[in-house]
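Figure caption, in words: inputs first, then the predicted bound structure.
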Amino acid sequence: MDKKLLEIIFDNLYNGIYVVDGKGVTIGVNKTFEEMSGFTNEELVGRSLYDLVGKDNYFSGSASLLVLERKAPVTATYSTSTKRKLLVKGRPIFNSKGDIDYVINTIWDLTVVQYSREIDADTARNQLLSEDDIITCSNKMMEIIDLALRVAITDSTILLNGESGVGKSLLARTIHRSSERKAKPLVQINCAAIPENLLESELFGYEAGAFTGADHKGKAGLLEMAEGGTVFLDEISELPLHLQAKLLGVIQDKTFFRVGGRTIQHADIRLIAATNKDLVELVSHGLFREDLYYRLNVVPITIPALRERREDIPTLIHHFAEKYNRKYNSYKRFSQSLINQLVGMAWKGNIRELENLVERCIVTCVGDLITPDKARIPGISPALPSGLGLKDMLAERERDILLQAREQYQTSRRVAAALGISQASAARKLKQLNKRKHS
Ligand SMILES: Nc1ncnc2c1ncn2[C@@H]1O[C@H](COP(=O)(O)OP(=O)(O)OP(=O)(O)O)[C@@H](O)[C@H]1O
Ligand SMILES: [Mg+2]
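Bound structure (magnesium ion present):
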């Protein structure tokens, strides 16, 4: 094909393209990528991704570097400083010696996919992103996920600690899916949710005639159902002491008896336990067995509360806004000033509370832009954000207006017409919108 034509195609693809060499040095990006990222080909070419990636740098992460490290294709999602969400698929191109000559990255702007109101957009998105993705940009969380993925492939018992709603159950699912047991069941038991008198037979099963009202054929318990897979014991602190002893036996000998049973059952399971209580304190009060605590606490993982990683709040707001926009077929977004205020909230209920709040706003607010006035959140001032001067407030309002205009009118010409400003000034302001970074 003619080289000129190839260039035309390169620049007119709907996907962004980012090409690097085998050392991670940028060879070129297409026009679509320039538009998505707000960075130009000129400023990126010749620069190494090792210099471009990092906190407050050009990119928060790089699929290319992962491809070079793993020598295999990689799919990753990134949030840009302009709060867009990009899905990147990186593919290595090997030479005859088996070294990587190039990495070709194809980039989808999920924000646009979502807002373009295309009939097929939902299907496309669903294939690209899984509901169970852990969304984060906090270094603390990334270290935790990294640790979890490293121990996932071992068979070690894991104890997840953290307040309600921080993502313990989500992480337990991730660990199971990343383990060699992934093809086998993940059985989740909430020790607080099952009445104490039923818990034993639920967990361990029972033999025929074990107790009045028991099924005459007997019944397998959850441990047997999880055979070969993972058992996730949520709220482990609520396990009664006599069952703690029985569970200890399962961990130590990998065997147990059904209730009323005499045949030894073998348990090939991986155990993950979770708690939002301080088990050490329960141990000191005699409410939790010390030996079981040590058996469970082989790999302790503590997930920090949301208020200890506030940098995640904007990212999560966008994530859940996308999720519920999709669910309710709406196209709403949170104004920057509302996001700024939400970042400062207490979030006692952590991510669950945040998710519920986002859903409520999407369902109840009228119009496509959710502002502090419309959201009516206790503790969020509807009128004036604190700590900002008039200049900052105006800048923020202007930013909200521009974002909304860009969403509605797409091109700088139409934005200019709608806002009654010159096209040059609209183009300049929209460009600044892309460049501005948020902490
Ligand atoms: N980092 C994250 N990215 C996306 N969704 C998240 C994240 N963390 C938590 N969630 C979502 O928030 C909700 C609460 O998380 P989860 O149920 O895992 O918390 P938990 O710690 O198990 O809470 P509890 O102690 O009440 O059982 C879930 O819907 C989960 O999918
Ligand atoms: Mg849970």
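Residues 272 and 382 are 44 Å apart (CA to CA).
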